[in-house]
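JOB MANIFEST
job_type = single_chain_structure
chain_count = 1
residues = 460
[input]
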Amino acid sequence: MATKTENRSRAAIAREACDYRRDLTQVAENVLGARLTAAQQHILRVMSAHGARLAVRTGHGVGKTYAAACLVLSFVASHPGSRAITTAPTWLQVRDLLWAEISALHRRARLPLGGAISATRWRLAEDWFAVGLSTDEAERFQGRHAPHVLVVFDEAPGVRDAVWLAAESLMAGEDARWLAIGNPTRPRDRFAECFRPDSDWETLRISCLEAPNVTGEAHIPGGVTSAWINRMRSTWGEGSALFRSRVLGEFPLEEEDALIPHAFVTAAQARTARGEGAPRLGVDVARYGKDFTALVVRRGARIERIETLARTSVIEAADRVKRLAREFGVAPGDIAVDDTGLGGGVTDLLDDHFRPRRVRAVNFGARAFDTDRFENARAELYWRLRDALDPLGPRPLALPPEEAALADELAIRFRLTARGRIAVEPKDRLRARLGRSPDRADALALSFARGPLAPAATVL
């Protein structure tokens, strides 16, 4: 039975919001006091219809989470007895992104919304509420039928298939609506299927080029700017998968010869991992003026440190390796150095320092440990890195999301030789395609070197 407080909340919202229920933009603007961009208004207008299904692919920083928060509050406020269920790929994203925005809008609303609100729940009555759920609990999406139901997937590309299936069971009612919104990071997943021509979803794309700060429509604090777009164009390249997905809001063009799927990389950027096991240090020594000496410290599935050094002598590079080894407790045998070119000088200096112990000297062009599968050591090391990034692996590697250059360098291609061995794109060819050397990616791959210590010309 509803309490007096719940009845007052129900009455207040019904009085102020239900007059606008045919157009949720009116609820957002007149009840919440929200300032919506043209794209955000479009989202709420589409979602005002019974049975609406809208998939929105967006660039970075265009206000998608704000739009989703406005939708949740506007829908629930204007539909007594309704239920809104939201989710995102991780619990932290549910709580700290979408529901933080919902709580802030509820607190600042022009008209009091009432009800009891917590970190991931807004309750107006026993049968009238909005809730944020973890994707680890797909079964909790079932059995939440009501006269009016709204499902919101924030960062939809990362939501597990089981949750998509569970949410589908909520769509049987007369007024069941579904918003799936996010950055299009995978060319083939449930989110991408929403955009197929034969899909029953209405779709929308919001590019960073259409952002209010870019077009001059409005000034949104923290929103994407022309300066950021230009910086990403310079950093990633206009034709890169990262620029397509994060700036243009387009799905990346997954190439059949991509060794590491773009989906592996974006999934790795979205997760965190515990550092377990012995630390390892990969060192790729610069051989050209514009290249960097890159050092990557990895402990299990977590990258502890990435450093790049420009125009560094072999003595300076060796000193930096010694400092990092001391700081993170890396044993000499767990330091892997690209031994070709100037790297040989770094290897010699480190061997002299750690004598009688030795570091691991690696020649990417040397024969692989598994000669039946791999053309050379470079192919074998990158395949180990690929396996480590596989989301279905036992302990998937996490990548620092701020390391966009590393993510782009992992777009390495492969082929099968006439003998059926895996061969990866030579470094010089990848350098020509990227416009820079893949120093960070090589250093990360080197951190997966293992096996008996031996001269660089033999095995890993």
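[summary]
The first helix runs from residue 4 to 17.
The chain has two domains: 4-215, 274-446.
exit_status = 0
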